[in-house]
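FW: tagging you since you asked about this chain on Friday. Here's the raw sequence from the shared folder, copied in full. Didn't touch anything.
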Amino acid sequence: MKSALTASNRTRLAVARRRVAAVAAISVTLPVFVGCAGGVSTGTGSSGEACAPEDITIVQSGRGLENEYYVAVDAGARAFAESKGLLDNYQWISSDGDSSKQLSQIKSVLAKSGECTVLNIDANESSIVPAIVSEVEKSGAWLVTQWNKPDDASPLDGSKHWVAHMSVDGVPQGYGIAKALFEKMGGKGKIVALQGILDNPPAKERFAGLQQALEEYPEIELIEDQTAGWDRTKAQDITQTWLTAHGDEIGGVWAAGDEMALGAREALLNAGRADVPVAGVDGLEQAIKLVAAGDGYAATTQSTGKLQGGYGLAIGFAAATGEIDPDELPAEKREFYLEDLPIVTQENAADTPAATDVSELDFSDVWAVNGRGM
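HL: got it, structure written out here
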């Protein structure tokens, strides 16, 4: 997707990113951390000793396994644990979209397993990341975060126990699916847009990508947008309301995630509007099948779930065992985007690997999916 951008588009992309950063409103700031281990040069816990692999508790946290994206995350996480012969040491904890619950779960895990804990956390909201980091620092455990964090918080701020933060650049994703949607619409018409949780950086980035695409298609008009919180049922309800309000005016639906796009599609089918195309992000199996069939789904993206689950844990594990020292890592290995993956359209959908296919994952290089620094 990146290679298809013109110089002008790249300029817009940079502007969009700056706008995304500028609008972030963070009410919780990252505390100042005091480093553990008294200057020990290896990746060690508060005791000053590296953890033996068999003593490490491996933890993955996300919203819930009823969501296909998190099934892929879990598949990648399990693949890593199995590669170390530690599947019995692995546990998944579901936040169910509740930030207080997620923080409580993390505290409970740390109370039991202490410094030899590796956590790969998709925080429900950016605002709880500082509290998670604080708990990890106090216990001497090891943390990698995914997707969400405050704009003014970073693993580089002083805590070696917050090993890394990884995400996917949402601007080209939102831009790419928007272009595919607009082309499906013949380059003109009115659309509505379903946003993710507004506190989440990927939601903001993907919406900025949509706005960039709108600048390039002056005959496409965005008439309404609303957050559906990444939820399929909420997206269906919102789309039904829009169909009542706008009727045949709606010519396309852009969604920041496939769960919401699929909810919107259900509302369209119920209203007899199967002619209205939708587009989403995340590469859910149902979405890819619909894209391949040309059945009202203009585009999605390849899933990064298994990569984030597997390699997020691999990086934290390498720090816990002393294989890497976070303090000695360059900035681009502590805060980075994964490599960009192609937008999935009808032309390439048949060649897109299954979201849970972990057969080609190789954890011998923990930085294999590192695309570029943030």
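FW: The chain is about 40% helix and 20% strand.
HL: agreed, and The CA atoms of residues 145 and 203 lie 16 Å apart.
FW: great, closing this out.
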